[in-house]
Amino acid sequence: MRSAQDGDRVAYAQLLSELVPMLRRLVNLKWPNTQEDEDIVQEILVSLHTVRHTYDRERPFTPWMLTIAKRRMADAARRRYARSANEITVQEPPETFSPVQTKTEQDASDDQEALRKALNALPAGQRQAVELLKIEGLSLEEAAYATGKSVGSLKVSVHRALRSMRQSLGREN
User: Fold this and answer.
1) CATH 1.10.1740 occupies which residues in the chain?
2) Could you tell me the pTM of the whole model?
3) Where in the chain do CATH 1.10.10.10 domains reside?
4) Burial 70-84 (b: 16+ CB within 10 A, else e)
5) Of 30, 47, 84, 165, whose Cβ has the fewest other Cβ atoms within 10 Å?
6) Are 61 and 11 in contact (CB under 8 A)?
7) For the chain, what is the radius of gyration of the CA atoms?
8) Residues 6+ apart with CB under 8 A from 115
9) Which SS3 state, helix, strand or coil, does residue 1 take?
10) CB-side exposure of 155: number of CA atoms within 13 Å?
């Protein structure tokens, strides 16, 4: 490390390559056979690289390096604990599809026909408001400009139209 601090890149590369197996063993003692081993080793190496300027040449290298390694392992333990506090283990994964069948094409076309009939049964002003706002997707301002009605009037028309359509379709929601 002393040579690395003096700018010797070869010595620094050799130091890191010698540290990696030792760090892997150290991490593996704390977390045997986990997928996080290599990530923790890499975090330790990055920390050593980042704070290498803080190494005091008058003191032994190993205790300094082990302190950094233990702190990174403690950080990893805290992350693991925080993650596990929010995870739930289940015996069976939840179903992604309901066993109830979805609508068939016939059901969908029947719904479309019922909607068409309910829309045609509306008064002309309400039907126009629904067509412009809900079917064509115009904004209230655009629909107001197109019809010459106020924004408030359009809101009332759409509200009444949707309530009427729900009633005619047998849906009170």
Assistant:
1) 2-86
2) 0.48
3) 105-169
4) eebbeebeeeeeeee
5) 84
6) no
7) 35
8) 165, 169
9) coil
10) 5
3-state SS record for 42-90: HHHHHHHHHCHHHCCCCCCHHHHHHHHHHHHHHHHHHHHHHHHHHCCCC
* CATH no. for 105-169: 1.10.10.10
pLDDT tens by residue, the chain, 173 residues: 888 888 888 998 999 999 999 999 999 888 777 778 888 999 999 999 899 888 888 999 999 999 999 999 999 888 888 877 777 777 777 667 666 666 665 566 567 888 889 999 999 999 999 999 998 889 999 999 999 999 999 999 999 999 999 888 886 54
Reference 153, options 143, 167, 165, 163; nearest CA is: 143
